[in-house]
Amino acid sequence: MSDQRTAPVPAFEPPYYAVVFTSTRTEDQSGYGETAERMEELVKGVPGYLGMDHAQTPGGLAITVGYFRDADALERWRSDTEHRSAQKRGRAEWYRSYSLHVAKVERSHGFVREEEGTLPT
C-alpha cells in the first residue's frame, strides 16, 4: 500500500463495516506493488468507502483493514471486476495464505494527543 500515514483512520459514527484482510505473501511479488496501488486508487472511488489501515510485521504478516459505511458499499467493492481479477491473481501468485473477516462495527471511538506546546481549545 502506498499510504504512508502514521495515524490510524479516525473513528466513525457506527454502524459501519470493517473488512480485515490478513496475509502472508510468496517470494515472487512481480506486479504486486502496482496492483496494490491500483486497488487503493479504485477503492477510494467506491461511494461509502471510509478509509484503510495497513500494518506489516518484520516476519511478513500483513494486516489491512478497510472501512465501509454500509453493506452496499462493501458489495460494490467486493464485486468490482478489476478487484475480482486482482484477487484471482493474488491467489495464483502473491499470497501464501490469507484470511478475510467482515464485521459490523457497533461501537467506535478514538483519541488524538494534543501537540505539545498548544493550548486546548
From TrEMBL:
Keyword Oxidoreductase part of the UniProt annotation: yes
One matching Pfam family: ABM
Gene Ontology MF, one: monooxygenase activity
EC number per UniProt: 1.14.-.-
ABM domain mapped to chain residues: 15-89
Cross-referenced InterPro entries: ABM_dom, Dimeric_a/b-barrel, Jasmonate_Hydroxylase-like
This protein's UniProt keywords: Monooxygenase, Oxidoreductase
Enzyme class: oxidoreductase
This protein's name: Antibiotic biosynthesis monooxygenase family protein
Protein source organism: Streptomyces heilongjiangensis
